[in-house]
Amino acid sequence: MTERGSRNIILLGAPGSGKGTQAARLTERLGVPAVSTGDIFRANIAEGTALGKEAKGYMDRGELVPDAVVIAIALDRIDANDCRNGFLLDGFPRTTEQADALDRHLAAAGRGIDGVLLLDVPTEELVRRISGRRVCRSCGASYHVTDIPPARAGLCDACDGALYARDDDNEETVRNRIEVYNVNTAPLTAYYEERKLLLRIAASGASGPDAVFADILKALRA
Ligand code: AP5
Ligand code: MG
Fold it and tell me: Which residues line ligand 1 (CB under 6 A)?
């Protein structure tokens, strides 16, 4: 179980469960960087790198990028200097192989995971949320056309950046992403429960992002 002051945290949850939304709040509160493998891939796609070209096909179909690729990228990022006092993992690990590799890598450095936040949201709400999601091209802030609208349509409240809908946010791809989550990633719930690290957070619509954040802080005793 996480103790006050612990900093190596995983955000686990289906597509649209609010991992990115909560990571943005937590990174500010805890003072540790958020590491999103999805954001790393999207940045590489935007820059046209070899990694971006490899990842794009998988992402557009709503499939997982192969373990070997993701593991190398994620572990390398965790070893960066800014993660030495902790990190928030958003979207990694997503398979048992990734979780095992993370465990081994941290253990070899005398480190470990302090808590795994599972954001629990019903499937139909996930589809509705993602279909209405808009993301800021400049700072990555996440909005929803009706639930969490920006003050000015199409523009980010925080930085005036342009808002866009992600390529993989169409309904067909979203349903596949959720299916892939249920098959490959949901087993990690039991994996971390066995290790007494899992913290379940009810993150559905009745509670907006701020209420979910308050529950997360309580669970982390932060
Ligand atoms: P990734 O970018 O990680 O996408 P995802 O897991 O599908 O999750 P999302 O980013 O869609 O949702 P989120 O949980 O961050 O929700 P958000 O906060 O935006 O991965 C994309 C792809 O990259 C994968 O499909 C795969 O191909 C590849 N990939 C990445 N990592 C990989 C890995 N480890 N292994 C293999 N492949 C990998 O919120 C969603 C919406 O809901 C927003 O509109 C938001 O404003 C709204 N919202 C948030 N909270 C609330 C609330 N409490 N109430 C109402 N609305 C809310
Ligand atoms: Mg996200």
Answer: 13, 15-21, 36-38, 41, 58-59, 62-65, 70, 91-92, 94, 98, 129-130, 133, 142-144, 147-148, 177, 203, 205, 207-209, 212
Q: Are 40 and 77 in contact (CB under 8 A)?
A: yes
Number of domains in the chain: 1
Confidence (pTM)? 0.94
Q: What is the CATH number of the domain that holds 48?
A: 3.40.50.300
Amino acid at 44: N
Task: Identify the nearest ligand to the CA of 133 by its number.
Answer: 1
Q: Which ligand is nearest to the CA of 135?
A: 1
- Assign 97 a pLDDT band (cuts: 50, 70, 90): very high
Q: Is the pLDDT of residue 115 over 70?
A: yes
Residue 150: asked if its preceding bond is cis (omega within 30°), the reply is no
The rounded distance, in Å, linking the Cα atoms of 103 and 116 is: 13
Largest CA distance in the chain: 49
Q: Which of 7, 25, 133, 134 is catalytic?
A: 133
More confidently predicted of 124 and 91? 91
106 domain-assigned: yes
Domain extent, residue 91, equals 8-124+186-220
Active site residue 77: no
